[in-house]
TrEMBL record, chain B:
GO terms for molecular function: phosphatidylinositol binding. Belongs to the sorting nexin family. It holds the Pfam family Vps5. It comes from Scylla paramamosain (Mud crab). Keywords: Coiled coil, Protein transport, Transport. Involved in several stages of intracellular trafficking. This is Sorting nexin. The keyword Protein transport applies.
Amino acid sequence: MRLYLIVSASPSLCPGDNPQATHLPRAWAPLARPPPHGSRLTADLFSTNPGALKSPVSEQTTTPEDQRSPEDPLTPPPPAASLTPEPHNPGTPPDLFESVAEGPVVVQGGSPKLSSVPLDLPAGGNGGEGKQQPTFFPTPLQEVSLEEEGDEPDIFDTMSSPKLQLNQAEGDGGDEFIQITVSDPQKIGDGMSSYMAYKVTTKTNVSYFRKKHWSVMRRFSDFLGLHRKLVEKHLHSGRVIPPAPEKSAIGTTKIKLGSDKNADSGSLDFIERRRAALERYMNRTSTHPTLRADPDFREFVELDAELPRATQTSALSSAGVLRLLNRVGETVNKMTFKMDESDQWFEERTQQIESLDAQLRKLHASMERLVNYRRELALSTAAFAKATAVLSSVEEHSSLSRALHQLSESTERTQTIHHAQADADFYVLSENTKDYIQLISAVKDVFHERVKTFQTWQHAQITLAKKREAKAKAELAGRMDKVQQAQEEVTEWEGKVERSQEEFERISRAIKKEMEQFDVMRVKDFRDMVIKYLEDLMTSQQQIIKVWETFIPEAKAIS
Amino acid sequence: MMDGMEDVLPSETNGTKSGRSDTVDLNDSTLQVDISDALSEREKVKFTVHTKTTLPDYAKPEFSVVRQHEEFIWLHDRFDENEDYAGYIIPPPPPRPDFDASREKLQKLGEGEGSMTKEEFSKMKQELEAEYLATFKKTVAMHEVFLTRLAQHTVFRNDHNFKVFLEYEQDLSVRTKNKKEKVEGLFKSFNKSTDEILLAATQKDVDDYFEREKTFLLEYHMAIKDATTKADKMTQAHKSVADSYIQLSSGLSQLGTIEGPRLEKFINKVADTFEKARKVEGRVSSDEDLKLSDTLRYYVRDGSAAKDLLYRRLRCLANYEQANKNLDRARAKNKDVHAAELAQQNACEKFEHISNKAKEELNDLKARRVTAFKKNLIELAELELKHAKAQAQLLKSCLQSLPEE
């Protein structure tokens, strides 16, 4: 019904930022073809707007467009009628804002890199299916006060270009949204039993959440546990579950064993990468309306206490080993079972997915190379700047010495620019591509689910035939008691065949729909990512221009 | 005949030729030297040294000869060893043409050919060839600068060896030092450096000016050497960044084909932009190399030559003082006084001569250095500016042209 705008960096929210006071609720019909502007899904998925969080000014000016995004249901609501329309009673926008404005300040993501995207949901009151469990949590949630983080200096200040914000002009985006930020990585405990905890801040106006704006602390294994549960519950319905960041033994051990004071840039980097990846993961998952409504997900973001340890995510537990075996089995299955593909669509898509996967991996490798080279460039430029400074101090000719000193300073500035650009190379381009690769493998998983259902169906058919044979044999042999039993079995298996066929067709349909959305979102995300990157590159160049422009007069002043 | 030499040697070898190198602007047209052409064969580079002169000593007003790198070194050594020139800064010899790095890269590229697409491969090959060409041009320029400095120098230009170098049609048969001579050379330089250190420690200079100069030069030399290495590293890194754009660009185009119509146009535009951006970055790198690194490098070597001058002077001073002592001793013993007197006088003259010349040369060096730095720094900044603007413009137009959804 209304737009909820987030101004991350500003200490208060301005009601005035909300241009659209009312908004007709949109029917969340199965025709859920999302509006072409996948919206900030893209930004969401590819965290293309690192700068957005940084500066209050830019944030404010862009929020009107920025924060709107039509919801982009990745799947149509499940046919199962488990969802009931929920009466939606939002207050008027100003109320909303006021209530939030009194609340604590929004916290920045821990780095300038990512911004989460608010996602609109269709208002529940229109017969759509917001899942409603308004009284899900017995315990009241506490709002955690969020500190405002300082701005990191970086060149992406001006990068929150309006271009990236998609207009809700079509008005078919819902007006509900949810935005999650992951911040404040902290080391809890000491030694091998220590772990990293992150603050997960959610802002939303989705009705089935208790509050509009709150935080909880979660540890890394919690995120993994969530992912596992979601996979268990939804993969077989044909949904693409966004993949969670990977475990890394080396990085984690370094953190565990290192002390806070000695956090070197390597481990800081690792923490930052992980935090950014977690944030992207949370936002991608929350974008998906079904996943968002999932009780486990909601518990994850809302429950104010510590979640029960998802021990089964630990690599060495028995459950972990079991999972590993399962994985192996599945892989073998994937390789050996060649499905008789009758559906042209699936045939094409599978192939396309495969080649996309391969090509993206290659691309990612070359992006990583670029990042490394640029980081090297930044380092060597810094070294040169120092050497030039020394030279300038030795030089006896005074104006040449001054010019050399200027050269040293200019080079120093260029070095900073290169360094920032390398970061952009990394976070905007490389990490997002990596995410993309992981998403593709989630898609492959879903496709494989379908293959499995097909297998089940085939198997059921074969068994049915056998049972029928057995029955016929029993009839021939005149064994009436056996015939009765055989008949029961035949009926049973007939039912199974029917059901598994239904299941197969259902999942095929679901996947098709899901893939449609996925495609649109994917294209959008990619475009946005590339555009963002190009803009960053351009800004770097413009800054370099400034540096040299200031240097030239100095050089000319040598007498 | 000599004029036949003026034309470029036909390509009987599989070398690359450089175009005409830029002629240096000479104030004095009585003796103009330049390298009109160069041919690269396998291991060697053959330079065509072209001379134009109005001096009467020369047989013809205009002529060319073919010289190789070793012959340049020979010429430099003749100057270096000549005691008459002890008071001058001998222009540093040009560095050996070194294509090893390029060759190595080409080899690596050949090995990795299987792993990349055809276009990628051809692009990288082009890049390498351009690099090779750039190195080639640079070495030609350095040899030319060496000659022009000699030609412009009022004393050096009249040197007999120089004339021979310019005129003698045949090969100078300067063989590279064989082992024995190399070892000898090593010994000599070793001796020289120990002597230098010894002198530096024991010999007190009578002239404050030279004391100061010495300290300054030593410090400066170290600083500038360091700066040169770092500058080289920086240009290298820049080049690598530019090259990695190639893979990015081709990877993107391949992605475009897979993605199909929706993204293809978009992606192709982006891939194209990267390709263009890469060229600009590459030019940034090579310009930095040319203007910055080379200037620094040249003055490292010039500074080295200046240090040599100071060393020679100091040695002269030591000799002079030794001669004085000898004279005193001779007078005391009253034996060989005349000889000693003569020796002392010689030494004294030499020393004075050197000191005066050295002062001039050092001031000259300073002035030259300042001018060269100024010119190159300005050019560097302007080029960097130009390239940055070009890249910004390129990116801007790409962004504008990317079709909106």
